[in-house]
């Protein structure tokens, strides 16, 4: 209701019943009180975020220059050198991890949403298996990353003798993000209207043609969002890679090479050297990358929305 | 009611057909012949199984896990339940209540069916798309914008696009589930005109809630009703003129005159 109408209301009612108008006053007071309170909370949350990001940028940006970005870390008590190899290692690790986890996760989600109901009819055992698998995914999504790290250390690094390597770290990272990709893909598939599936099946398309021809294209935006979120997760995790990737600051030569990601480098600089400025500089780079990723999510979802709605 | 033999060749024959959702029987002893190259409308009160019966003809109900059927339905004297379901749906197209174009271009929407059945030749596809859109009375409105998204069309145009999409597969039967219920009166009239033109080449079965639509647009009318246990059955079936002017059953008369339903 617009303000002039409220005023009108007040005039109409005043004099008729004073009790009612005092009630209105009280209601309006509680309304403005709540409004102020909520505004303050929103403002406080924003302020804290800006404080953190601002602090990292103010402390970190002076350390960033072309040399910092293009030379490799040299180690030592003062954290000599730059961060070039850590950037490269991060990129390698992200690509490898997604290459492993995305097909697995998307495939599993397609099975759970599009095919599971059919196989469930066939036997009680399969129904139980699917239910257990989905519950497992839910639980895994909430497990702390270091536990995936310990698992990776025990299985990939030690038992399978893959050592501290991109391979070990990538496989452990894939386990970590698998639940994320499965859940986001499931949600994206569930959001595809049933009428698309009926339309396609009604034309005599097979189930698989329906999935690839109509369902997946419509679900792509949600799936892409899930993958980008997973990329962010890989970039920002530390502990899991500390126990699977090792910490070498040399350029990784192959999948068996050890390495250190940006986030891991920040951790090392902060705990083992006096180069606090360089830790902050690396953090600033990390934050910038995460910002770019978020921007990418926004742009891609806008692009897909436009393409799908046809406007 | 036993099946009533009507004039013309039977295209679809249902014999002692029953359908259950879990323990609930939704259709009871359906026996009916649906003639070729004619429009057969299915009317009746809400919840009496009209759509369920329609969706049985191309086995769309199988998408619901709890559905179970007994008895048979024949298409050209072939049992549809022993045919491959993909082949069946190629012969029996369907248009849904709400227009459901895919989020693709107009061209890709119409070409979807033929492509799914393995047609790759671009020139042939272009021909089929044009022919189908002309048949669906949409060609003149979209011929310059075939790359535009199907979702950018108006509701009535979308429904005609869905009809074109069904025609592109060259089915013999087209099932329509209240195809005009989500459209305005002008768009509805367009769809009705279009259906009249289609009956020369296709057998059309249409579920409708609109008595006038059934009366003016169909050749035969099937009236569904339900037993006290809510399972649906056919109470009357005959030429539309007979059903509407001289119904055999009191319930039919009450229903079409708007006394219930």
How would you describe this protein?
The complex is a heterodimer of chains A (311) and B (261). Chain A is globular. The longest helix of chain A has 43 residues, at 18-60. Chain A folds into 2 domains: 3-63; 70-308, MetI-like fold (Orthogonal Bundle). In chain A, a hairpin with a 4-residue loop joins strand 1 and strand 2. In chain A, strands 1-2 form a two-stranded antiparallel ribbon. In chain A, 78% of the residues lie in helices and 2% in strands. The two termini of chain A are 32 Å apart. Chain A is built from 12 helices and 2 strands. Chain A has 311 residues and is an all-alpha fold. By secondary structure, chain B is α/β, with parallel strands linked by helices. Chain B has helices spanning 50-57, 85-91, 106-116, 122-135, 139-142, 155-167, 185-198, 211-217, 240-245, 250-256, and strands at 10-21, 24-35, 39-43, 67-75, 78-79, 92-95, 173-177, 203-207, 220-226, 232-239. In chain B, the strands form 2 sheets. A 6-stranded mixed sheet of chain B has the order 6-7-8-3-9-10, with helices on both faces. In chain B, helix 7 links the parallel strand 7 (173-177) and strand 8 (203-207). The longest helix of chain B has 14 residues, at 122-135. In chain B, 47% of the residues are buried. The model of chain B has no long low-confidence stretch (mean pLDDT 90). The chains are: A mainly alpha (311), B alpha/beta (261). Chain A binds chain B through residues 117-118, 120-121, 193, 195-206, 209, 213-214, 217-218, 307-311, and chain B through 58, 60, 63, 65, 86-90, 93-94, 96, 98, 100-104, 112-113, 116-117, 148-152, 162, 165-166, 169.
């Amino acid at each position: 209701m617009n303000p002039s109408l409220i005023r009108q209301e007040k005039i109409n009612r005043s004099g008729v019943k004073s009790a009612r108008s005092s009630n209105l006053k009280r209601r309006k007071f509680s309304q403005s009180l709540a409004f102020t309170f909520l505004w303050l909370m929103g403002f406080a949350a924003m302020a804290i975020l800006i404080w953190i990001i601002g602090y990292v940028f103010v402390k970190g940006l002076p350390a960033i220059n072309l040399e910092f970005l293009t030379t490799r870390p040299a180690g030592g008590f003062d954290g000599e050198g730059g961060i070039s190899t850590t950037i490269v290692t991060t990129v390698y690790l992200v690509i490898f991890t997604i290459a492993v986890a995305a097909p697995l996760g998307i495939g599993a989600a397609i099975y759970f949403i599009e095919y599971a109901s059919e196989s469930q009819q066939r036997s009680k055992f399969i129904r139980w298996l699917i239910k257990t698998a989905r519950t497992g995914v839910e639980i895994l999504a909430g497990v702390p990353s270091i536990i995936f790290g310990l698992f990776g250390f025990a299985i990939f690094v030690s038992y399978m003798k893959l050592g501290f390597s991109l391979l070990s770290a990538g496989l452990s990272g894939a386990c970590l993000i698998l639940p994320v990709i499965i859940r986001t893909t499931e949600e994206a598939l569930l959001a595809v209207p049933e009428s698309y599936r009926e339309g396609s099946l009604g034309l005599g398309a097979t189930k698989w043609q329906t999935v690839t021809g109509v369902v997946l294209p419509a679900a792509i935006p949600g799936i892409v969002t899930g993958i980008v979120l997973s990329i962010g997760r890989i970039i920002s995790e530390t502990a899991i890679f500390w126990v699977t990737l090792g910490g070498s600051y040399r350029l990784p030569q192959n999948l068996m090479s050890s390495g250190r990601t940006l986030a891991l480098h920040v951790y090392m600089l902060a705990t083992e050297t006096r180069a606090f400025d360089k830790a902050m500089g690396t953090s600033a780079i990390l934050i910038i990358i995460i910002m770019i990723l978020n921007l990418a999510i926004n742009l891609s979802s806008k692009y897909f929305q436009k393409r799908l709605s046809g406007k | 009611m036993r099946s009533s033999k009507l004039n013309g060749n039977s295209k679809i024959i249902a014999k002692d057909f029953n359908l259950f959702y879990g323990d609930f029987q939704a259709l009871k002893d359906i026996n009916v012949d649906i003639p070729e190259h004619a429009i057969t409308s299915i009317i009746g009160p809400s919840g009496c199984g009209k759509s369920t019966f329609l969706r049985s003809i191309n086995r769309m109900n199988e998408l619901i896990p709890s559905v179970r059927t007994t008895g048979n339905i024949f298409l050209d004297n072939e049992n549809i339940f022993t045919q491959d379901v993909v082949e069946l749906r190629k012969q029996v197209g369907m248009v849904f209540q709400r227009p459901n174009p895919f989020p693709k271009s107009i061209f890709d929407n119409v070409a979807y069916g033929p492509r799914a059945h393995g047609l790759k030749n671009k020139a042939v596809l272009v021909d089929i798309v044009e022919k189908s859109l002309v048949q669906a009375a949409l060609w003149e409105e979209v011929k310059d914008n075939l790359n535009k998204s199907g979702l950018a069309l108006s509701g009535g145009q979308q429904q005609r696009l869905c009809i074109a999409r069904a025609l592109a597969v060259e089915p013999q039967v087209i099932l329509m589930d209240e195809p005009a219920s989500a459209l305005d009166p002008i768009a509805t009239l367009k769809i009705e005109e279009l259906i009249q033109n289609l009956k020369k080449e296709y057998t059309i079965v249409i579920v409708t809630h609109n008595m006038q639509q059934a009366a003016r647009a169909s050749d035969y009318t099937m009236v569904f009703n339900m037993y006290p246990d809510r399972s649906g059955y056919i109470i009357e079936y005959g030429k539309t003129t007979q059903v509407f002017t001289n119904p055999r059953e009191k319930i039919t008369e009450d229903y079409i005159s708007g006394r219930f339903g």
